[in-house]
Amino acid sequence: MEFLPAIEYQAGNITVPENQPRQPQSLQDLLRFTVEASSMGQESATSHLVGPMDEDRRQFLEQTLRSMTVDIVEVLSKAIEVLKRASSLSTEDDPTECEEAFQEIMDHVDNIDNANDFHKIGGFCIFQPCLNSVHSGLRWRAADLLAELTQNNPYCQQKVLEAKLMPVLISLLNSDLNEQVRIKSLYALSTLIRECKEALEEFRQNDGFSALLKALQSGVDKLKIKASFLISSLNQAWVKNELHRLGFVQEFVNLISEEVNPCTEHLLSALLNLVTSHEASQVECRGTKLELRETLSRLIERLGPKEEYKEVCEYARQLSLILFEGDEVDK
């Protein structure tokens, strides 16, 4: 029996057969394509090498395909149900199941659509009890999840504000006894207020900048780095006025004058951002009591030849140019 050739259409220089099946775009597509092609019972030019798919192999491929298809909403919903029980945990109870539920959620909400779905299916109900849990592992994981949800996500930023979670995070940053909880709370606050004017204003109203200053004074490197990184991203004039009023300039200068450490680069970057286009901060930096001129000169002289301190020296030079018209650069 002979078959007529498939009808073909010309599209530029490409010949496109009619009824051409959609080409597989993923492994799941490939498996589905294989199963469907087998069920059609069509013979190919290689039929003498590869016979029709037997029923066992067909079932195996279908099971594999199903196992690779994850219902993310169902996964998130199950994790939420587990975390709803967090408020009932006492200090003697094992929080492992809840900690694993947090990890299950974190595995999916890096996708912004999944993050938004997490809120829409009621996921935000877990935050108040988990942020106030007696278990520090649940407190920091809740803050970490908030940071992931609000990272470059205006929808979730707004929903966090509506849920009144900002004051809770500031309180944790200020006074929680667990270092990891304070670090993750600052991380969540940073992602929440960045590029969100409403969140930044609420941060001010809840005395968030004082909490930020306390983080700089904590002696914890990760807190100092995260606080400096956040300040480096805030360019609003009113924010700089607030930072100057609270004494951030002197705190930065004091920390920079210490022995060079992993925080130095970030502290210099934050101070550079603060003094840029802010006269009051510049005037304070030029005060002889702070000895910033000498500190910058020492950094440039001692660290200049060392490649690993390239960024430190560059920030020091830029500060010298703004504050002292480049005196230290020429020495």
From TrEMBL:
InterPro entries on file: ARM-like (IPR011989), ARM-type_fold (IPR016024), Armadillo (IPR000225), Hsp70_NEF-Inhibitors (IPR050693), Nucleotide_exch_fac_Fes1 (IPR013918)
Pfam families, per the entry: Fes1
**Keywords annotated in UniProt:** Repeat
The answer on whether this UniProt entry bears the keyword Repeat reads: yes
Q: Which GO terms describe its cellular component?
A: endoplasmic reticulum
Domain of life, per UniProt, equals Eukaryota
Enumerate the spans annotated as Nucleotide exchange factor Fes1 domain. 27-117
Molecular function in Gene Ontology: adenyl-nucleotide exchange factor activity
Q: What is this protein called?
A: Nucleotide exchange factor Fes1 domain-containing protein
Q: What is the lineage of its organism?
A: Eukaryota, Metazoa, Ecdysozoa, Arthropoda, Hexapoda
